[in-house]
Amino acid sequence: MTKKDFFNTVSHGKEDILQELLHLLSEMRIDHCVIGGLAVNAYVEPVVSLDLDLVIVAESIESFLKSLTKSFRIQRLPHGINLESSKSDLRIQIQTDPRYQEFISRALRKQVLGYKMKVASLMDVLQGKLWAYADE
Q1: pTM of the prediction?
Q2: Spatial CA neighbour of 82 closest among 62, 53, 103, 60
Q3: CATH code, domain carrying 47
């Protein structure tokens, strides 16, 4: 079993939603980075997280969301956008708090659970965790 197979089994993935999102971001040439639990996996021994937290360059968020309307339920929140698919238990949140935008320029391409993805730098992942803890 590959790492991707394992991840999709744990997330009850009927399809590889994570790979689909990463491919779409690449195809649309949308700069982004992964933050949160999956990003932590780029720096330590993997711990399974069903949360995919993304920062997408602000100017591209709306066009990205338009491309997802047939496949995902979209819920807008004060500082994020949740995406939900019936094809997987993966919980996807696009972080819209402007503080995270700088993370994109410092992101590094890493392997995480068998996926190649842009991941926030270790210091930015930590900063994001501190902000999340401190936010009301």
Answers
A1: 0.89
A2: 53
A3: 3.30.460.40
